[in-house]
Amino acid sequence: MSIDEGTAARVAKLARIRVEEADLPALAQEFSTILGFIEQLNEVDVDGVEPMTSVTPMRLKRRDDVVTDGNQQAAVLANAPDAREGFFAVPKVVE
Questions:
Q1: N or C: which end of the chain has fewer CB within 10 A?
Q2: Residue among 30, 24, 23 at smallest CA distance from 10
Q3: Which domain of life is it from (predicted)?
Q4: Could you give the 3-state DSSP secondary structure of residue 87?
Q5: Does the pLDDT of residue 69 top 80, yes or no?
């Protein structure tokens, strides 16, 4: 598939990318090359191939989903510039 300069200019406008008029032929050629690669990928027969999440088969480490209170209130508030009554204190912004 071949992309002309008009289409390349329209894509650049939709992407909100300013492209100089002199650079449009090179951009159109790059778009055509990318679409050529996509056409090559579409020729590959993938029937019966399971989708992969990684190139190496592995399971993610998991932990038990247990509800806890955290018990880290003091540690969390230790770096706060202003903490009162166990909460972050911030300046009032709405009157």
A1: C
A2: 24
A3: Bacteria
A4: strand
A5: no
- The reply to whether 79 falls in a domain is no
Q: Residue 19: CB partners within 8 Å, gap ≥ 6?
A: 8, 9, 12, 27
- 80 contacts 72 by C-beta, under 8 angstroms: no
Angle (CA) 41-10-23 rounded to 5° is: 85
Q: Per-residue confidence at 22, pLDDT binned at 50, 70, 90?
A: very high
Residue 85 lies in a domain: no
| Token output for 2 | 């071949």
Which residue range forms the structural domain that includes residue 29? 5-42
Q: Is 18 a domain residue? A: yes
Structural domain total, the chain = 1
**CA geometry: angle 22, 32, 46, nearest 5 deg:** 160
